[in-house]
Specification:
- The chain has 87 residues and is of the alpha+beta class.
- The protein has one domain (7-86).
- The chain is built from two helices and four strands.
- A four-stranded antiparallel sheet has the order 1-2-4-3, covered by helices on one side.
Length: 87
């Protein structure tokens, strides 16, 4: 049975992300926008997810850097991302 997950479920667990979505391939993707890193990273987001879910599988994670553009979406701004699914 497939697990249904929502952004509110992550917030309830203390994991705060800017965007939350599900890709066509069935994987979830979360993003956190940044202007300055200030000690944050995709690895820290992935560790938070691993701490809360024992059956999680991290597919991809990283940092996407883009020049500042006011009003751009999170996906079109500098952000950390983690793509995952459940075993």
């Amino acid at each position: 049975m497939e697990r249904k997950l929502k952004k509110e479920d992550l917030s309830d667990l203390g994991i705060f992300v800017d965007t939350f979505g599900k890709k066509r391939n069935g994987n979830y993707i979360v993003r956190n926008e940044f202007y300055y890193r200030m000690g944050r990273s995709a690895e820290k987001i992935a560790e938070s997810l691993k701490d809360k879910f024992s059956d999680i599988n991290i597919v991809d994670m990283g940092e996407n850097w883009k020049s500042f553009r006011g009003g751009a979406s999170v996906a079109n701004s500098s952000h950390f991302y983690v793509e995952f699914n459940f075993n």
